[in-house]
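Annex B. Sample input.
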Amino acid sequence: MKTVEIVEVAPRDGFQSVKPFIATETKIALIEELTACGFSRIEIGSFISPKAIPQMSDTPDILQRVKLPKGLRVMALVPNAKGLQLARNAGVKEVAWVVSVTESHNRANVNRSTEESFTNFKAAWTELGPEKPRLRFGLSTCFDCPWEGRVPEDKVIRAVERVIDMAPDVEIGICDTTGRAAPDHVADLFGRILPRYASDRITFAYHGHDTYGLGVANAIEAYRQGVRVFDGAAGGLGGCPFAPGAAGNTASEDLAFAFEHMGVKTGIDFGRLLAAADHVAAVEPCQAGGKLRSVPRKRALSGFGHASHGLSA
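Annex B, continued. Sample output.
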């Protein structure tokens, strides 16, 4: 049976761009609603300086109070060695570390060069010793940079090789940070990377944005090239604060519908997800996106993959 994993990232990548502080109780309620939809993994928050992103300051509190399904994989973003240690102290067993492929975006994002970021990661990761959490290493601006334009594929490949050299057991996230990738570009890049580097120890995920309405099409092309892990944010919420003009993440409900419609199983309860996506989008409606929420609910459910949900079109 063909399957994919959709990683729900709204609680971190979606919420972090919302300026008014979202009450912790609201975040907890939305996270619990999302995790009841059948996701196997969720990005729950980040351990980053509250001065940099105040919205993420309550991540430790959320982790202590939220009620999550048994077996759910919980991932948190860490930007540096201090964040990594805080995440481990909080009991997080899966972390995401991000470095931009392009110098300009990396300096805007974390105020240091890409070389410094890779060096800092290597030191922090080595210091952990043999007992390490699961690692998602996200490579931002793999396709386009707000300041440098289209990113050469060879530059991305060199970054992939650098990650593998430092962490041979890793999931590498190939990120379309600005949403400017096109399906042919996605095909070319993954077509070069996966045959050469993918293995049981080195896997790849695709993280897309929907700025130009190509989020789902790009994810489908990544799937055709062999990718089986995709990030999505319910309600299409998100957008990189340091990528001017970038719209939100590709909506989880749009990804779920597309894959199930193709006969590819996601394990997600689509009806529940649509309801949860409405609630997530209501946090900041002007930043929300996606297509499926605008389709009459009865029709959306009746067209979900091979299952009719007992409804007629």
